[in-house]
Amino acid sequence: MEKPIIQLIEYNEDGLEERELESIEEILPSVKNHKVTWINIYGIHDVEMIDRLGEILQIRTLFLEDLLNTDQQPIYEDGESYDGFIMKMLSFDHDNKRILSEQITLVLGEHYVLTLQEARGDVFNPVRERIRQTKRRIRLNDNDYLSYALMDTIVDNYLQVIEALGRGIEDLTLRVFETHEPGLAKEIFDYKVEMNYLRKQIRPLREIMLQLLRAKETYFQEKNMQYLRDLNDLVIQATDAIELYSNMISDHLNIYNTNVSNRMNEVMKVLTIFASVFIPLTFIAGVYGMNFENIPELRLQNGYYYFWGLILVLGVILFWYFRRKHWF
What we know:
The chain is an alpha+beta fold and 328 residues long. It has 2 domains: 5-259, Beta Polymerase, domain 2, CATH 3.30.460.20; 261-324, Magnesium transport protein CorA, transmembrane region (Methane Monooxygenase Hydroxylase, Chain G, domain 1). Helix content is 56%, strand content 16%. The protein has helices at 47-57, 61-68, 125-132, 137-140, 143-178, 184-214, 225-288, 303-324; strands at 5-11, 16-21, 36-42, 75-78, 83-93, 98-108, 112-117. Strands 2-1-3-7-6-5-4 form a 7-stranded mixed sheet, sandwiched between helices. A hairpin with a 4-residue loop joins strand 5 and strand 6 (98-108). Helix 5 packs antiparallel against helix 6 (184-214) and helix 6 (184-214) runs antiparallel to helix 7. It is rod-shaped, with a radius of gyration of 35 Å. It starts with a strand and ends with a helix.
């Protein structure tokens, strides 16, 4: 993006206003009024703008540095004038079976909600549609409820990503037992990598939610704590699903490796049986192939036929013995 895009939504029960701002300075009147103000910024590459945003909203410098680092794990900061959250917005690429991620920062202040994203396009459109409808609950509540709605949308999207990955992992179950595809091991490993990435991004949210629910001073009102508890239940559900599918994919990998070992053992067993049969036959042929003149049976008229008869009888006996032992 050449320049960040700053979107502003202001609303209350009676009215709604949406517009794009030319500069960050234009948010000053909005963050001091008594309407619910949602400032959404696409693009975090303008460091000067981020610094100025921190000055206006009194956001700590260290938190600003964290939001500029897009490889940041989810964190929660209890600031003096805000509650700050850094999370990942995830989506699933069904064609390549990969998780796509984008860092999102959410800041809840006394009269505003600020969200910062890396690029345009997000999962918040359902929230915008709810705001545009006058009689929806979101229009009757304050900015802390808006923060909950945005976080809830992100977590709901986590569940959709987990479900999409889970379907792929469940489809592997029959393939692991019934097929011997050369690329199956890599596919299983790729799913394992994606599940590990999901765990890395979602597990810290459990601690974040616990910190938030236990916080003595927060910008979430007591009346809306019930929604945060419900959100905490969704996070627990997501982490439990991740653990379940992680165990499944580990089992798939173990089963695949076991099947490969079993197939190798079967091949080695067949080769061993053939070797066991031919070793005594080769021994007999080797004895009578020696170049000594006084080998007893060497001058028998039908010695050649006796030799083959002995070979065939001994081979049949060995095969019968191995069969009786159920070795093949």
